[in-house]
Design goal:
The chain has helices at about 15-50, 55-95, 95-105, 110-140, 150-160, 160-175, 185-200, 230-250, 255-265; strands spanning about 205-210, 220-225, 225-230. With about 270 residues, it is mainly alpha-helical. The longest helix has about 40 residues, at about 15-50.
Length: about 270
């Protein structure tokens, strides 16, 4: 009788269960991390509409739809970053050293980090493009399906709206350079470059570093530019969150902290 590694016909689905539960756990943690962003931004937009007495319901509906897309893109990116953190945390605190050596010997880590890094860069850039579409429509009422970041910035710049002018000044001073050819690059420019490289040219060059982890033994850490991949992508997420905080007051005339307090009171 042939050897059957599965006790019954349903055992073959155990890896699927583990993967599904892992994704659910990642999303639950992600929801905790992003819950204020998901609540505060729609709140700020709604408060703006109330104060501005703008009765253009179609404009408001389009803004709401675009903002929903923005928030989905952010959540998708943040979920991938959580998965990168999960690899580090599991290796640092949960996997016994002997099992960790065996896993690292199989070379799973490099592929997982490359795949998740590639996804994270695409998702982060997708978020930024969608956010600029939202800012362009919200502040300048310029709606279009897609355009590159600098063309969208030019649309915002051309608007006579004071909100659009302030948004343009912030974005081109802190996120994207005003002139790609002559100005120093900012973090949004680097993100676009990295995404274009991994999508259209080649994978990024990663390195292996030996580190001492909290259980007291050494292990391999996969890095980009001497940073752990999770830390590198977390820095980009932190830049995005800081941008959202700063742009919040420009767009809605309300500080992030004030909006959070009002939400807590409701």
């Amino acid at each position: 009788m042939a050897f059957n590694p599965y006790k019954n016909s349903f055992d073959i689905f155990n890896p699927d269960l583990i993967m599904y539960l892992g994704l659910v756990a990642a999303q639950k943690r992600n929801e905790d991390a992003t819950k204020y962003i998901s609540r505060i931004m729609p709140f700020g937009q709604k408060e703006f509409f109330i104060r501005s007495c703008d009765n253009d319901l179609l404009y408001q509906e389009n803004c709401q739809e675009l903002l929903s897309e923005v928030l989905f893109k952010f959540d998708s990116y943040s979920l991938t970053v959580e998965q990168l953190h999960a690899i580090r945390n599991a290796k640092n605190y949960k996997i016994p050293p002997e099992s960790l050596s065996m896993l690292e010997g199989e070379n799973y880590d490099e592929f997982l980090h490359r795949a998740l890094l590639d996804n994270a860069l695409m998702e982060a850039q997708s978020f930024m493009e969608m956010y600029l579409r939202y800012v362009a429509f919200f502040s300048a009422r310029e709606k279009f399906r897609y355009s590159n970041t600098h063309k969208m910035l030019e649309k915002i710049k051309a608007s006579k709206s004071q909100i659009a002018k302030e948004a343009y000044e912030y974005l081109t001073s802190n996120v994207y350079s005003k002139c790609q050819k002559t100005d120093p690059k900012l973090w949004g420019d680097y993100l676009t470059e990295l995404r274009n490289t991994t999508t259209h040219e080649k994978q990024l060059e990663l390195s292996n570093h030996e580190v001492i982890y909290p259980l007291g033994r050494s292990r391999t850490e996969i890095t980009y530019q001497n940073q752990p991949i999770a830390r590198f992508m977390q820095d980009i997420e932190n830049n995005i969150v800081f941008m959202l905080h700063s742009m919040f007051q420009i767009l809605y005339g309300l500080t992030w902290d004030d909006a959070r307090e009002k939400i807590k009171q409701n």
